[in-house]
Amino acid sequence: MTKHEVMVSYVQDKIKELCDSILTFNFADGKATSVSFLTNYAGKIVKKYVRAADKEYGFTILLTWYYSEETDDINMQAMNLGQKFMEWIDEQNAIKNYPDFEGCQVKKIENLQNMPNLATVDWENKVAQYQIPCRVLYFEKERRR
After folding, report:
1. Residue 37: which of 118, 111, 131 has the closest Cα?
2. Spatial distance between the Cα atoms of 134 and 27, rounded to a whole number of angstroms
3. Rounded to whole angstroms, what are the CA distances from 134 to 51, 58, 69, 73?
4. What is the reported pTM?
5. Checking DSSP bridges between strand 34-48 and strand 23-25, what pairing results, if any?
6. Shortest CA distance to 36 belongs to which of 21, 48, 50?
7. Type and span of the H or E element at 76
8. Burial label, 31 (beta-carbon count in 10 A; 0-12, 13-18, 19+)
9. Are 104 and 71 in contact (CB under 8 A)?
10. Residue stretches of the chain with pLDDT short of 50
11. Hey, where are the domains in the chain?
12. What H or E segment, with its residue span, contains residue 85?
């Protein structure tokens, strides 16, 4: 499996549990209650060693949810849903339940912010998108040729 496949598999059950949504990969349809897994970078070198490196796999969970201009709690629901996913990421890191990157040693998985970021609002369709940027830090040796 590629790192992309591993990561989608890693988060999809939690997404399904939180909002009963099917996770899409690098595609956001803009419909309420949809969740997308967006790749930011893969294999980004953080620290280079002689025949190995610490690398990052960056991704963003994009949550599209209902949006309200009223004083109801619809916007709060979306924020809380995103926060629950972030708490799950923190829990996975604490118990060292990491994605299985073949041939790599995963060191941590983490959120890159302390709360979901309101990214866009579609006023006409009354939906908003919240971003949750994350990364996996891992150690990988060079493959012998």
Report:
1. 131
2. 17
3. 26, 6, 29, 26
4. 0.91
5. parallel
6. 21
7. helix 74-94
8. exposed
9. no
10. none
11. 3-141
12. helix 74-94
CA distance 45 to 69: 43
Q: Give the pair of three-digit tokens for residue 8.
A: 């989608």
Residue 105 pairs in a beta bridge with: 139
pLDDT of residue 53: 94
Measured torsion, CA atoms of residues 64, 72, 70, 84, in degrees rounded to the nearest 10:
-30
- Pairing label, strands 127-141, 104-111: antiparallel
Assigned architecture for domain 3-141: 2-Layer Sandwich (3.30)
| Pairing verdict, β 127-141 and 117-122 | antiparallel
Three-state secondary-structure class, residue 127: strand
The angle at the Cα of 116, spanning 114 to 126, to the nearest 5 degrees, equals 160
Beta strands of 3-123 (E only): which ranges?
23-25, 34-48, 52-66, 104-111, 117-122
- Do 11 and 39 touch, CB atoms closer than 8 A? no
Tokens for 143? 């493959």
117-122/52-66 β-pairing:
unpaired
Calpha distance 144→118 (Å, rounded): 44
Residues in the chain, overall count? 145
